[in-house]
Amino acid sequence: MTALQPTLDDTLPTPAVDYPTWVDQVRPAFVEAARTGRRFTAYEVAKDCDLPEPANPRADWGNFVQSLVRDGLLEHCGFDRSLRPTGEHSAVSVWRGTRAAQAGRVA
User: Fold this and answer.
1) Is residue 43 packed enough to be buried (19+ CB in 10 Å), middle (13-18) or exposed (0-12)?
2) Count of CB atoms within 10 A of residue 71's CB?
3) Which of 3, 55, 78, 91 is the most exposed place for a label (fewest CB within 10 A)?
């Protein structure tokens, strides 16, 4: 068991869940977004659905979205400026659901 150090306000931080558990928590929101056929960034879905951050945000979001591409759920459809407060308006990928995802044939 690892010890958790209290934060400055004397509360204990919430331990991060492991990657597979996190994927199980956030995937349904992305499946739903893919079915709409609208364009979106990963941050927009995470913010709109109040999704938890992964243990390693810098790598896990990208790995997760790429797994959705490999599964045939999402396709890349351009770039936009990041709306993430820490993103400094950098370029981010824009996604939409594939036709199979929009028709509900991929989940």
Assistant:
1) middle
2) 15
3) 3
Q: Does this model's pTM top 0.85?
A: no
CA angle 76, 31, 87 (to 5 degrees): 55
Q: Tokens 């956030």 appear where? A: 26
SS3 for 31? Answer: helix
Tens digit of each residue's pLDDT (9 = 90 or more) over 41-61: 999 999 999 999 999 998 999
d(CA 27, CA 74): 12
Of 58, 96, 100, residue with least CA distance to 80:
96
- pLDDT tens digits, one per residue of 78-100: 999 887 777 677 899 999 999 99
In whole angstroms, what is the distance from residue 90 CA to residue 93 CA? Answer: 10
* Sign of CA pseudo-dihedral 49, 52, 56, 60: negative
Placement of tokens 């036709």 in the chain: 99
Beta strand residue intervals within 17-61, DSSP E: none
